[in-house]
Amino acid sequence: MTRKASDTGMLDAATLTLSGQHLIEASAGTGKTYNIALLYLRLLLERKIQVSEIAVVTFTDAATRELRGRLRARIAEASARLQQAAPAQPDDLDRILQMHRVDTAALETARDLLTSALVGFDEARIATLHGLCKQLLAEHAFETGLPFFELDNDAGNEATLELVRDFWRRHVIVDADEAVHAILERWDTPEAFATELRRAQVLALPATQVDPVDSPEWVGRMRAAFAKARAHWQTLHADGEVAVALQQLREAVVDRFLSAAKTAPHGPASMLACEQACAADPAEVDVQALAALNTAAIDAGLSAKAKKAGWTPTGALAHVGACVDALQSAQSEFNAALLARFTQAAIDFVRTGLAERRQRLRRFGFDDLIGELHERLHGESGERLARSIAATMPALLVDEFQDTDTLQYAILRRIHRARADAVLLLIGDPKQAIYRFRGGDIHTYHAAARDAGGNRHTLRENWRSDAALIAAANSVFDGVADPFLVDFIPFEPARFPSSKATSTHWLASAKPLTVWRMPDRIDDNGARKSWTVGSFAERMFAEVAAEIRAILTRAREESVGVPSIAVLVNSNKQAEQAARQLGQWNIACDYLSAASVYASAEAADIERLLAALDAPADSACVRAALATELLGFTLQDLLAARDDLDRWESQLGHIASLRQRWLDAGPYATIAHCVQTAATRLLPRWDGRRRVTNLLHLAELLQHESARRSTPAELLHWLGQRRMEADEKRGAGNAEPLRPADDPGAVQVLTVHRSKGLQYDVVFAPFAMATFWKKLENQEMADEAVAWHAGDELRIDIGGPEWKTHALAQRDEQFAESLRLAYVAITRARHRVWLAWAWVNTGQSSTSLTGPLAWLWYRDDEIKRPDQLVALKDHAHRIDEGLAALVKRSQQCIDIKRLEVEAPPVTRLPDAANKDDLVIAEFRGRIERGLETLSYSRLFAGSQHAPLADHDEFDTPLATSPALPVEDPVPQWPRGTAFGVCVHQVFEDVAFADLAAAGVHADLARICADHGYAGEEIETIAAITRAGVRSELLPGSGLRLMDLGAGEALAELEFLFPLGGSRLDAFAQLLAAWPDYARAPAEWITRRASVRGLMTGYIDLILRWQDRYYVLDYKTNLLGPARADYAAERLPAAIRDHDYDLQYLIYLVALQRFLRERLGEQYDYERHIGGTLYLFVRGMREGDRAGIHHDRPPVALIDALDAWCEGEAP
Questions:
Q1: CA distance 819 to 572
Q2: What contacts 1104, CB < 8 A, 6 or more positions away?
Q3: Could you give the 3-state DSSP secondary structure of residue 849?
């Protein structure tokens, strides 16, 4: 088959030039990671680049972990082999090492380099691209203007929905847009609108243009066209032609020239609506009600009698029909223009709002990291930033490059080109670019190929699959000139390595690729009939189960080892169907779909449990929780409790005990307790391990989130948001994908997208033939935003005049990706692959006739485009001819197996082992004792249960009776720990500028209400926090919280640093040298001799003012009834009484370590540390110093404390 030649040469990792930009195309199974490790090793030895200066980038955390292990192992292997003489037949590693064995000096140098790399490997830059961007933004904080930021990928989703709701409220409810009727016809709620924006990725994709670019002008043109059509209607109405036309229409219905059936275009309801519209004011005509006069409706309604008589609309009916056509077309286009303008305005509003929010809160999602770094690299100081990064990172290796987008590539290219001797190695396979829905852009790969010029290389030797399977896979794609539809992705047949031995695996004895040929179904009249998607899936999974049972049975009987088996599907629903079918055959399986764990049934169960824990007196919530699979109460149990008070009280008591456990021990302990109780019910089910895995996964997520949201009510709201987003994004790259269940040897059921990068002995891919094919031929108006490419430029059309053309272009790009999905599915296998063919049809798509296998196997010279494949429906003989040609091309490596319509009967696989033979494993490891996680309060108070966060409030007993009048009083209520937590959350979550304003900000009111405060209590909290942000914190400095700019404050910084066996008596001796902080022999010294483990805490705020950094802490203590009790000269005593000085000494050690990491050698305590600010906010007032305590301990003390934490004696 003639095809476009590739402009690439075979890669030799041992000789590749280690400078410039290179593009390496690594087909499936060709040893991509092996070659990355060789290139990494050469950079260490030949370029003498340190591990911290080589960035290795891939696209998943799992791949990052695997790469880290493989690279370290390769360095260790090279270090060991360096001492050995080169073998007679050197491999690639020996060829690289040989030049370093030439003399003793070279050998010593190489050994030192490898030893240094192993010792410092923890500093190796091996990360996802998002992780690398996070590192670079942090390391170059001052050059980027982002010294502090927080990573919160969920926050962007919540903010997007809030902004969409705000925009909707403004333009649909308060000041209704003229398109309001069209808006509500398309989206009935702001949530539906937000869902479409997210699904179409219009806010995320780095498009160069969003069409229509001139929506306001388009609206103007369409308004004029609609007005012109309406004027014509009014003229016809005034001339009486409308009345004549309507009479002609009535007569045609009476004469049965037009069908008057109930559902016909001229049924009673349609005719009545039309007559009413014609009788109404012609200036306000309801255009849609005129449908009966539409010429298309008349043509569709023609009866056999009319066709026989040759009746057609004439005269007034023809004139008015043409006018109605024009009216409806003009209205549709006018509405489309209005919707496009509305959508573009919403996109602009949301983007602006998200950008403002990011700058204000310094809280970024994963995609924001890419955008922020790209913006700064291409801004005014971009060249300087790029040089600064390149100076410390001269080598970039990018794995899975085909999954990048234009912004990501622009970042890599900008950094690479900032240094003359830099090397950029881009490794990927365009045939495996399958993440379009997640932003992956194959056209970016094409642009990089152009940039690489002659530095393009390929890997073609497939080390994964058997020789016969390689030949079979080649034949699948080798039958047409353009197997991947895209002209810049040629297919080069893979090769079996000459140095690899032929497989002796027992599975290799049969033909490696089997195609199940399903016959067409026959209807009652003997005509050919397609399979529905549901019936085909049921039939296929039965065949898959039968084949897997046969494989497992033979493996057991012949003791030849159970192979790894994968069933690859296209959707989460298919994964669940397959897993259920395998369960019926007693075949252990684990299904991993692209679904989020938040979309699981277990998440719904936990949401119901949370609702009951939040409202234990609500009987409906309690019963809903009890009825979940997690708690396991049956319908009989619940019905019996309705008439039995003792039973009902027992059930309420069960919920109450779970609520108390939640409050005492947290979400994980509570859910784990429920899982332990439910395990005997859940695990025997076919999906029991999956259910338990999901429950424990969700328990972990809730436990993590409980650090920010402590109450069941807050967690209930958070989980509800996550579940709603997961439902909206099904199959489109969700957060928190399902984890593998711990079931070794189980059959893996997963989507093709999840299988990327994995390999199995046996692969079943019965849906590789199918793809979604949206019928667009009769659709003129937009129903969704589409993404397509003009050349290599990504564009988005939100509903412009050229939408249909662009939608067809998007469909072609989606089809091209389905071809790549088929390639990925087939190339996962080492020994055997099963595919399938059948005529499968749905109402929206012809999934097989317009699918990837039809394009590859059944085309002829007349079929040039995918949409022409539907012609196969009328040429069934081509199917079998195509399969015969496929077998011939494969040199008989492919087997065509014809199946029956009826599925094989379910035959359960016998259990593999006798349960009586199972033995409980004995733990023989050693657990090191004595390690602790300590906050300052646990360390110095000796408590074993003190909270890690220090939002506690300590109230000093009042010296004056509260009944007596007090001069200049301070608010004495609210008080208590809950009040302290509420005030801290207000300072953390509400912008300082908003707190400074008069009145009560909405966010403050919401937070206070969540904590149970109302009315005057909220006014008091608003006044306290307003004084806190408006007060000058340092005399004459002008420093006020309300004036802090973006990037000058970091809230609620959690820290962890090691305590290396530090002795507490040494701590007391250290303090004794500093009278202001010294302590007499204290109880905390006698409680433990030393501490080992981790010091932890949360710093309320780190702020930067005039290039100095301050630790700031909010205190809500009630020190006395009067403001005089908060005078600056009285605060040191309160600080000392509560050990706050010990607290901020620890905080300053944490800040010093933080700044040393960020600023490196530039850090200097005297220059950069401004000290501590402890704000006793209850006593603060704008204009005086009350309530403000400032201290700046000597540098020698902080350095001594820092050394003490490391275990060094003073």
A1: 20
A2: 147, 1047, 1048, 1049, 1110
A3: coil
How buried is 667 (Cβ within 10 angstroms: 0-12 exposed, 13-18 middle, 19+ buried)?
A: buried
Place of tokens 């699981």: 600
CB 842 within 8 A of CB 788: no
Q: What is the dihedral of CA 197, 201, 202, 203, to 10 degrees?
A: 90
Burial 292-329 (b: 16+ CB within 10 A, else e): bbbbebbeebbbeebeeeeeebeebbebbbbbbbbbbb
Residue 127: the pLDDT is 94
Q: Which residues pair with 795 in a beta bridge?
A: 209, 788
Q: Residue 198 — pLDDT band, cuts 50, 70, 90?
A: confident
Q: How far apart are CA 1110 and CA 1103, in angstroms?
A: 5
| Structural domains in the chain, sorted by start | 9-149+366-460 (3.40.50.300), 506-592+744-774+828-898 (3.40.50.300), 597-728 (1.10.486.10), 933-956+1046-1205 (3.90.320.10)
DSSP letter at 859 equals -
Contact of 1096 with 934, CB cutoff 8 Å: yes
Look at residue 1133 and give its three-state secondary structure: helix
In what helix (H) or strand (E) does residue 1092 lie, and over which residues does it extend?
strand 1090-1105
Pair of tokens at residue 753: 């997208």
* In contact, 133 and 411? CB cutoff 8 Å: yes
483/260 Cα distance (integer angstroms): 51
Measured distance CA(484)–CA(856) in Å, rounded: 9
pLDDT in tens, 732-783: 444 566 666 656 678 999 999 989 989 999 999 999 988 777 777 667 778 8
What phi and psi values does residue 352 have, to the nearest 5 degrees?
Answer: -65, -45
Measured CA to CA, the distance from residue 835 to residue 514 in angstroms comes to 6
Distances (CA, A) of 990 to 415, 477, 840, 953, 1087: 37, 58, 56, 21, 41
> H-helix or E-strand containing 231?
helix 215-238
Phi, psi of 1052, rounded to the nearest 5 degrees: 50, 55
User: Tens digit of pLDDT for each residue in 962-1018?
Assistant: 445 567 778 877 877 778 888 988 898 888 888 888 888 888 888 888 777 888 888
DSSP 84: S
DSSP state of 1161: G
Helices 61-81 + 104-119 axis angle, to 10: 150
Alpha-carbon Rg for the chain, nearest whole angstrom, is: 36
Residue 180, token pair as written in the block: 């309001």
